[in-house]
């Protein structure tokens, strides 16, 4: 039985959405048990009604607008802090939350702990590509400033994740820059490029551009957390803009409405791929146990898939494979 701790208080939706997602995960995976962290009035009745669920009662909630590090230090009774502590103690083997990304990063870094030799954990996710090939994209926001040696480790962890999540035997890595030529980029990017060339002569394939993010040309795309987060938010904003414009066009024209009806299944599939609900969220790599961060506006399906993905990461030995990747490169 694999036990995953789920933060019932995280996300923009009500805790009932999270509990419904947990319930669906339990129904789908008979070898899964869940430690549900949250308000006593919510998690105790839920645990009583589900055989493979236990309650972890929290007394505080970390809001999305709070300073992450300060909130983690001051709210020791929060669901995020208690959930990460439960993983460290062995009461659960992984953690899922759709709460504040910064707070989860801070609590997990100290509460769960880093894999030995990992300088900084990073946030990774699988993004769709126009060729049908998915790419692991990292760092998506954990480290705004990243030294060249940190980007090398991000690439190594991304390769380990790509093997497990995408089934790629020998993942190739590209560095996000403002041009594909090796001479393009800021001083930090040029330094990172040189470090990646030295570290991965057989798997580093050079620079890629922003237009390559959804092209499906690379197995792993690596960058610093500042650039990665800006790129991610740009993709999300562009997707929302396009869908909004399509809805407006449909409302203005009967012919467009008829066409949209025919395209509806395809548009739903595209939206699902961009939303990340199918994969449940982003993985925090470099920790001693799997931690998945869900989108704030997470759905029932995303909670279910995030919980299941966390259990899958435990069973596949992701942490050990990352440790092995880092050790071999040291």
How would you summarize the topology of this molecule?
Layout lengths: L1 E6 L7 H14 L3 E7 L1 H10 L3 E5 L10 H7 L4 H11 L4 E4 L3 H11 L10 E6 L7 E4 L9 H19 L6 E4 L10 H13 L4 E5 L11 E3 L2 H28 L1 H22 L6 E4 L5 E3 L6 H17 L1 H12 L1
Parallel strand pairs: 1-2, 1-4, 2-3, 4-11, 6-9, 7-8, 7-9
Antiparallel strand pairs: 5-6, 5-10, 10-11
Helix pairs in contact: 1-10, 3-5, 4-5, 6-7, 6-11, 8-9
Structural summary, described in words:
- By secondary structure, the protein is α/β, with parallel strands linked by helices.
- The chain has two domains: 1-118 and 286-330, Isopropylmalate Dehydrogenase; 120-278, Isopropylmalate Dehydrogenase, CATH 3.40.718.10.
- The protein has helices spanning 15-28, 40-49, 68-74, 79-89, 101-111, 148-166, 187-199, 225-252, 254-275, 300-316, 318-329, and strands at residues 2-7, 32-38, 53-57, 94-97, 122-127, 135-138, 173-176, 204-208, 220-222, 282-285, 291-293.
- It has an eleven-stranded mixed beta sheet, sandwiched between helices.
- The longest helix has 28 residues, at 225-252.
